[in-house]
Design a protein that fits this description.
Elements: H1 2-17, E1 29-33, E2 39-43, E3 49-53, E4 58-63, H2 77-83, H3 87-97, E5 102-104, E6 114-115, E7 122-125, E8 128-130, E9 136-139, E10 144-150, E11 154-160, E12 165-171, H4 173-176, H5 179-183, H6 195-208, E13 223-227, H7 243-248, H8 253-270, E14 279-281, E15 286-287, H9 289-299, E16 304-307, E17 335-341
Parallel strand pairs: 5-8, 5-10, 6-9, 13-16
Antiparallel strand pairs: 1-2, 3-4, 4-17, 7-8, 9-12, 10-17, 11-12, 11-13, 14-15
């Protein structure tokens, strides 16, 4: 009975906390120049939403599908321009618009690693630093920002009020679950099961290094915001219990692999019955990524969590246009999430 009451309380709090979509600005036009000098008139890009976080200590800006592709994959400016000729100018424009002093941009790598500015020595663009494969970065200075080009992977901001530092994270499925370990039970563990674990350890270590911050082993009073991720309705991992496979009497190898994942997550969610379920449907393997991150944060005593109200796979505007790119529709187009420390 107690677990039921806790779950009801959680649902009410979540409904009150969820980010509300601001009224979209009227479409305006802008002159956009690509890497070859070609000029065109386009709709001036506007975020799906932007929101101050943690009492104004940080900000999140989310750009979606209505502004085209935000993919900036590449190790050089030439490679980026070859794939997406307009994105470099867009990135620089956003840095100027939001007064970003340094963009710290590790390459999302599903390795559950978190880095700092010293790990990002390559100034690919003016004040736009790359150079590490990692799923998160610590924003240590005001004006630092994290840029994440994604399509369905959850973006997460963790704020330590003792230091004002922000851990900005890519919380894709394999950044919060060590699937290699699940698939090969004897496999060597990666250093951290989840990028959430890595971020909290890093923030705790940096906090302990502050001269006026005692390391007393007390729970970390972090605040968290979850944004721009896929919801469980479309986040399926079909298991061998799927009706189609049951009717055919054939289970492809991937369905067996998915069953191991779903069993693992169902065992995990039992430990915290007051939180939303991680697995919302067993046979179809529907995973609530937002809930999974909440469970992992709760394991560290972090409970001050808010989230936006969107689903990158299904959210649309008033005209029925998809607000976000989604891997469920196209595996190359990307949204852009910017997390900035103010």
């Amino acid at each position: 009975m107690l677990d039921v009451l806790k779950k009801i309380r959680h649902y009410i709090q979540s409904a009150l906390q969820r980010g509300r979509r601001p009224a979209r600005q009227e479409d305006s036009v802008a002159i956009e120049t690509d890497s070859s000098g070609n000029v065109r008139v386009v709709r001036a890009y506007q975020p799906v939403y932007e929101r101050d976080l943690f009492g104004g200590k940080a900000k999140i800006i989310v750009f979606g599908a209505l502004d085209g592709d935000w993919n900036y994959a590449g190790v050089s400016v030439d490679e980026i321009n070859a794939k997406n000729p307009v994105v470099v100018n867009r990135l620089l424009s956003i840095m100027d618009r939001y007064n970003i002093k340094r963009a710290l941009v590790p390459k999302p790598s599903f390795n559950a690693k978190v880095v700092t500015d010293v790990d990002l020595p390559n100034e690919l663009l003016p004040n736009f630093f790359r150079g590490a494969d990692a799923d998160g970065v610590i924003l240590e200075q005001p004006g630092d920002a994290y840029f994440l080009a994604s399509a369905d992977c959850l973006a997460t901001a963790l704020f330590d009020p003792h230091t004002n530092m922000v851990a900005a994270l890519h919380c894709g499925r394999d950044a919060v679950i060590d699937r290699n370990r699940l698939d090969s039970r004897g496999a060597e563990h990666r250093e951290n099961e989840s990028v959430i674990d890595a971020a909290i350890k890093m923030l705790d270590r940096l906090s302990c290094e502050m001269p006026d911050r005692p390391c007393d082993g007390q729970p970390i009073e972090m605040q968290v915001f979850l944004a721009a991720g896929i919801r469980p309705e479309k986040f399926e991992h079909n298991t061998w219990r799927h009706p189609l496979y049951a009717n055919l009497g054939i289970a492809p190898p991937e369905s067996v692999r998915n069953m191991g994942l779903i069993d693992h997550l169902e065992n995990l969610q039992v430990k915290r019955g007051h939180l939303p379920s991680i697995v919302t449907e067993n046979a179809f393997g529907r995973i609530n990524l937002f809930a999974l991150v909440r469970h992992q944060l709760d394991a560290h005593g972090v409970t001050q969590i808010e989230e936006d109200e969107f689903d990158t796979a299904t959210s649309t505007d008033s005209n029925g246009n998809f607000l976000f790119h989604s891997n469920r529709r196209d595996r190359t187009l990307r949204n852009l999430v910017v997390i900035k420390r103010n």
